[in-house]
Amino acid sequence: MTDRKTLKLPDPSEATEAPALKKKGRGWEISEKRLDALHEQAREMRRHSSEAHKLLAERFAKADLGRHKFTRHMVIGSAIVDFGCHSLGMAIDIDEEGENEALAKRRDKSLNAVGIRVMRIRAQDIIENMDDVLARITAGMRMRIADKQEARREHHRNSRPKDRG
What we know:
Layout: H1 32-47, H2 51-62, E1 71-76, E2 79-85, E3 90-95, H3 101-113, E4 117-122, H4 123-128, H5 130-159
Parallel strand pairs: 3-4
Antiparallel strand pairs: 1-2, 2-3
């Protein structure tokens, strides 16, 4: 009988940089077949959400977030985040019991490399203390808005034509 090969991930603390992602097309050079599988997996995750996920989704649906919208089980590159806001470049990941911590850290590092800030929230915190969780999310949103505004100002400062004369 032959041994079954298993996928092994390197320790995230050993890797100095996240793998480079080339933003091309729909999914950063991910095959269409793989991308379709990711979207199908996200669909299944939406159908069979955890209790914490349902509670947070319900609060997001009721909240008036202005032009910002959090999408449930959003596919970003080759990752699926629990909630994602494209306009803010922000993702919320709910830490459930029994998740692979090394895989989560690697995914966070890859998302950070392309400008997506990941906020991790324990499922137990959502169930037990929703108001504190919402306050943390709101603070994170404000921070991302400030970051985006500062980046915009910096871009305008650097792109102005120099005075000639």
